[in-house]
Amino acid sequence: MRLPWNPVSDDVYVERIRRGVAFGERCRILLLSFNLLMICGAVWLGIEMVELLQKFAQPTNAPAVPLIFVSTAMVGLSLGLMISHAAHGIFSNLIGFRTERLLLKYHDRQSASDTDDDPDIAAEPASTEPEYVEFLQDDSG
Question: Bridge-partner residues for 3, per DSSP?
């Protein structure tokens, strides 16, 4: 099956997934430690930014309040996105790519059963119409 946005065969796609899962297994500890360091660095940078911005919150700096607010919002947004990305990386590494493993498991099982199937059964065309449509058509007549 070829998809219009991904013009590769199923076997090539599954091999890409297999390589990705193998890479995740080899580098799991490294990726976990990198993501934890990224969260720690973001928290430290956030604390330092609060201390720095408290120095600017003086009455003499009143004309610069909009600029301080905008810069604080941008820094907070970037730190929040960095923490969110790192947390997603940690959870995906801890869970262990379950979806990809299931895809590989079922693909291997399907490819093993394809060699054992009866050629008469494999030659039958698959129905493209869902079963519930046939059910509705039978009741309406």
Answer: 6
Please give the torsion angle defined by the CA atoms of residues 87, 89, 94 and 96, in that order, rounded to the nearest 10 degrees. Answer: 150
Longest dimension (CA), the chain: 87
Tokens of 119: 């050629």
Residue 41 · residue 53 · CB < 8 Å: no
Cβ atoms within 10 Å of 1's Cβ, excluding its own: 6
Residue 123 in contact with residue 114, Cβ under 8 Å? no
d(CA 8, CA 21): 19
- 127 alpha-carbon distance from chain centroid: 32
- pLDDT, residue 1, reads 52
Say how far apart CA 33 and CA 27 lie, in whole Å: 10
First to last CA, the chain: 36
DSSP conformational letter for 27: T
Instruction: Render pLDDT for 76-92 as a digit per residue (tens, 0 to 9).
Output: 899 999 999 999 999 98
